[in-house]
Amino acid sequence: MDYKKNNAPTSIITRDCGELESKTGNLYETVVVASRRANQIGVDLKNELNKKLEEFASYTDNLEEIFENREQIEISKFYERLPKPTLLALQEILENRVNSRIPSEEEVEQERKVQEAKEEAEFTSQIIINTNVEPEKSFDEIIAESTDFAPSGNPETAIKSEEPKSKKETKAKGKKETKAKKSKKDEED
């Protein structure tokens, strides 16, 4: 939509509440419609401005370009002079260019059910993802799975470990090695 050709005022003016109320039957409903439409217009204007300013984007820091880029400054000033999105939305409502409707109770209930189904599907998928994660290995399991390790920190005394066949064997082997280390340390003391 071309917001530049809209005949909305550029500053705040006094509005007739009766005229605004007549558009939807309820003044508060009109305010809600205007605010939602203003949000849409604001997003559109921002995207349009960003597209135009991307042409001038430079990825190097150069002070000369900042001061010499008059076109970019003119574009920015033009968008600053446009009427604000709220004023544009109110003008559209007064000109009957905005359609609004209140959803029925069935539509609201159906939307609520759809939302609950989406949330349940997300929760279920998170449970599936979490159950597929392997549990973290303990320090003893990591040591038992390694092929070479030096219990005393000396590489010359490295012990070759056998490949464990199950988790129970791995834990048992790790416990045996830990007991052997403790008994060796007790002998040294």
Descriptive notes:
With about 190 residues, the chain is an all-alpha fold. It has 3 domains: about 5-100, no CATH class; about 105-135; about 140-189, no CATH class. The chain contains 8 helices and 2 strands. The chain has helices at about 15-25, 25-55, 65-70, 70-80, 85-95, 105-130, 140-145, 165-189; strands at about 150, 160. Strands 1-2 form a two-stranded antiparallel sheet. Helix 2 packs antiparallel against helix 4 (about 70-80), helix 2 packs across helix 5 (about 85-95) and helix 7 crosses helix 8 (about 165-189). The longest helix is centred in the first third of the chain and has 28 residues, at about 25-55. The radius of gyration is 35 Å and the shape is elongated.
Overall pLDDT metric? 77
Form type: elongated
Number of helices: 8
**Rg on CA atoms, Å:** 35 Å
Q: How many strands appear in the DSSP assignment?
A: 2
Structural class: mainly alpha
Give the strand order, joined by hyphens, for the main sheet.
1-2
Largest sheet: 2 strands, antiparallel
Question: Can you give the helix content as a percent range?
Answer: 55-70%
Order of helices and strands: HHHHHHHEEH
List the domain count as a whole number: 3
Percent in strands:
under 5%
Unreliable residue runs = none
Distance between the termini: 87 Å
Q: Main traits of this protein?
A:
single chain, 189 residues, mainly alpha, 3 domains, two-stranded antiparallel ribbon, 8 helices, 2 strands, 63% helix
